[in-house]
Design goal:
The chain has about 140 residues and is an alpha+beta fold. It has a single domain, classed as Nucleotidyltransferase, domain 5 (2-Layer Sandwich), CATH 3.30.420. It contains 5 helices and 4 strands; from the N terminus they run ββαββαααα. A two-stranded antiparallel sheet has the order 1-2. A two-stranded parallel sheet has the order 3-4. The model has no long low-confidence stretch (mean pLDDT about 85).
Length: about 140
Amino acid sequence: MAGVVGREPGGVYLEVVASASRASLERVAEDNTAASCTVYTAEWAAYDRLPELGRGHATVCHAPGRRERARDDDGGGGREVHNNTMEGLWTGPRNSLRPFRGVSKFYLGQYTAMFQWAHNLKSVTDDFLSILLGVPLSTDFAP
């Protein structure tokens, strides 16, 4: 699977890809990020050409013996270079599928889409629940 998560709005895009190839990852990044944004990734060669796509690119090293979780490149005290948001997000779909001990690849895209939808849903309204459950809203209101 491949994914993109925005740091400010927090919106998520997840996709089941055939392979984690350069072509697949570049397409997901290019289709789901603004040309002026910075993409934060691990140091993996498949991401090396992101600057050629008009994206800024900063990496953290996850290699044994050189591991870094986050880095402060601008000296401002915050550790702005990390991919912890995306890595943490993967915990959700993994844990939600764990009780099933895996799912068929045929259905993985649907499970992924449901997790993305649920994550991006910022509020649940009565209208939303009515549509989701197929139940008309009651017009009887008791004070």
